[in-house]
Amino acid sequence: MRPDRNLALELVRVTEAAALGAARWIGRGEKESADQAAVDAMRLMLDTVSMDGVVVIGEGEKDEAPMLFNGEEIGSGDGPQVDVAVDPLEGTRLTALGQPNAIAVIAVAERGTMFFPGAAVYMDKIACGSEAVDAIDINATPTENVQAVAESKGVEPTDVSVVVLERDRHEQLIGELREAGAKVNLIRDGDVAPAIAAARGGTGVDLLMGVGGTPEGVISAAAIKCLGGALQGRLWPRDEGERKQLVEAGFDVEKVLTTDDLVAGEDVFVAATGVTSGALLRGVQYTSDGAVTDSIVMRSRSGTVRRIEAQHMFAKLEKLVGSSLR
Q1: Largest separation between any pair of C-alpha atoms in the chain
Q2: Could you tell me the strand order of the sheet in which 122-128 lies?
Q3: Number of H helices and number of E strands within the chain?
Q4: Phi-psi region of 297 (alpha: psi -120 to 50; beta: other; left: phi over 0)
Q5: If phi over 0 gives left and psi between -120 and 50 gives alpha, with beta otherwise, what is residue 255?
Q6: Phi, psi for 253 (deg, rounded to 5)
Q7: What is the pLDDT along the chain (326 residues), one digit of tens a residue?
């Protein structure tokens, strides 16, 4: 059974619940509490979604994570058999510190079509929108990529904005991007929202570059597949021991992974809801009697992208996230 076109609209209820659960912890310095609240709310709503889902990208193995774990069966058990990638709170530290770009996100594709990262924790990535699909090349230098993207967009390299995680490992990358004239936007955590922003026009983000999480790369690829952009990645072992482990597990650490390698399905659905405001989405906003959420919902087969603003009443929310919302 193919996933139904209405599945995406069911999934947005899941990310809305997770975002609302996490939002009460914004700026409170307790990232574990924020993450747990998002997971609890997401799991509650997932049980109502008409699908037979298995988590491919989750919080780890069952014995090590009391959250949404790899291999967990989710959904109502009826409907299409699907792979599910979840991040109930992408940006736990961002939420705890009250910083931008924290989101709740879920991606769904036909069973067996999502890349399972296994022990591959990190991936070198480059992501862009539809205008630059043929311009980017992860094997090229940062300078060459900036120049190629600028040319494809008909702008100067100084107009190209690149998002990079602020990490010591990116010191050389950041220096070369600036030398090439690009505007470098450093982020503390959470590269899924910026990757989606790079693929979606009008966000002020042209490229995402650098090494981030492999699971986040799969989720980003699902969204980018819906948006018509491109993501290229290569597994990034942290040391020789990890490289050997990956090779023994059957991974080709030299292979350039494309969007289709990471998510091979043709029926891909992605929903994301803002927790804190950023380039992609507005964060949860509270009103006198409830809250307002901002979400994006995408489907690959039709290319439909919906922006959904929803109003939620406190009386209903407290069943999900507790009385402390008042």
Answers
A1: 57
A2: 183-187, 161-165, 207-213, 122-128, 230-235
A3: 10, 13
A4: beta
A5: beta
A6: -75, -10
A7: 666 667 888 999 999 999 999 999 999 999 999 999 999 999 889 989 999 999 999 876 544 444 688 889 999 998 899 999 999 999 999 999 999 999 999 999 999 999 998 889 999 999 999 999 999 999 999 999 999 999 999 999 999 999 999 999 999 999 999 999 999 999 999 999 999 999 998 899 999 999 999 999 999 999 999 999 999 999 999 999 999 999 999 999 999 999 999 999 999 999 999 999 998 999 999 988 899 999 999 999 999 999 999 999 887 667 655 545 55
Q: At residue 302, what are phi and psi to the nearest 5 degrees?
A: -95, -20
Which tokens sit at 104?
């709740």
Containing 124, the helix (H) or strand (E) segment is strand 122-128
Nearest in space to 185 (alpha carbons), one of 203, 208, 202 = 208
- The DSSP annotation for 307-321 comes to EEEEEEEHHHHHHHH
| Burial bucket for residue 302 (CB in 10 Å: 0-12, 13-18, 19+) | exposed
In this structure, the number of other CB atoms found within 10 A of the CB of residue 311 comes to: 11
CA Rg value for the chain: 19
What does the block give as tokens for 270? Answer: 């992605």
Beta strand pairing status for 230-235 and 207-213? unpaired
Round to whole Å and give the CA distance between 18 and 209.
27
pTM exceeds 0.90: yes
The three-state (H, E, C) secondary structure of 270-310, written as one string = EEEEECCCCCCCCCCEECCCEEEEEEEEEECCCCCEEEEEE
In contact, 153 and 206? CB cutoff 8 Å = yes
Q: How many CB atoms lie within 10 A of CB 260?
A: 15
Going by the DSSP 8-state scheme, the letter that residue 217 receives in this structure is: H
Angstrom distance (rounded) from CA 304 to CA 299: 6
